Amino acid sequence: MMDVLILGANGFIGSHLTERILADTDWNVFALDLGSDHLERFLDNRRVRFLEGDIAINHEWIEYHIRRADVCLPLVAIATPATYVRDPLRVFRLDFEENLRIVRQCAKYRTRVVFPSTSEVYGMCEDAEFDERTSPLVCGPVTKTRWIYSCAKQLLDRVIIAMGRDEDLSYTLFRPFNWIGPGLDSIHAAKQGSSRVVTQFLGHLLRKEPITLVDGGAQRRCFTYVDDGIDALMRILRNENGCCEKEIFNIGNPGNDHSIRDLAEAMVRVLGEFPGYGETAAKARIEEASAEEYYGKEYQDIVHRVPSIRRAGEVLGWAPRIGFEDAVRRTIAAYVAPGAVDALGSGDDDVC
Ligand code: UGA
What we know:
Shape: globular
Bound molecules: uridine-5'-diphosphate-glucuronic acid
């Protein structure tokens, strides 16, 4: 039995994690978020205590629950690259300043923190696979505001590690690599540049608008299905025999390393499989734009990004199971054919 505090519980990772905790454990969830649309079906559960609130305002509630909880996951952050360019100070205030306050309180009250670092900390690292403890973290010049998110998360990683050493903060850092799945972003809000690439493309496809490949779409990502990510996160929370204490884990699927062009083509193909969407897929248009045209001149892209998941395998006994096309299919199904996701099975067929 454990009390888990999830700040940002209504978000993509938070809502999937809440669902899994309620299904697989007897733990309590203390949850805070600005909204509750992804949590509606859990709000009557007596193991959930939800506050509709803001981490920048509801300080007393947060401090009280940090003190009470066994573990805190501060998941509130802006995570869309267009916002890093458009509104870097908002990213700094929320992703860095607000989260620093929470991490300090975790140290003060001796509450374990499981902190979402990010694949973005590696930036333009040239290693074939990014290693949590040895890969260099490579950001562009300070005039490229795109890197403010990467730097904010990196500095928090460093603060947490220092607090672990000097103030005995109990922590685990995890770095999601392009997790995708139902609820990633709202497709209705997916105007150009407003969300991450999968929801961005899906919103355009469903509205019969062209998809834009930035700089030709040769840049690559390792798309990781959210259920695989949550499997790893549950192992981190269980923390058998303290195995995750002061650890850092990349949580991604190196077998799903694909270009953004591959992604666009796979999404069109898979959408066409769903009843009623054949014509939409057949008429899909793929256009190209330069990064400067699409995001502005303060953007820089990441050409490749592959995690080493050796550590997660050794310590957590974890490996991702859902392959690329299956992950795309499950994500699209959640938007165009809700209910079809369960029928797609467990994914064991597609081990990477
Ligand atoms: C993301 C975000 O920074 C965070 O959500 C997160 O920390 C991290 O990566 C992660 O999920 O691992 P990025 O992968 O660059 O960064 O974000 P996306 O918006 O999903 O873009 C992926 C790629 O698609 C980029 O190369 C971008 O230029 C391209 N793209 C995006 C297009 O070609 N067209 C679009 O319409 C949108």
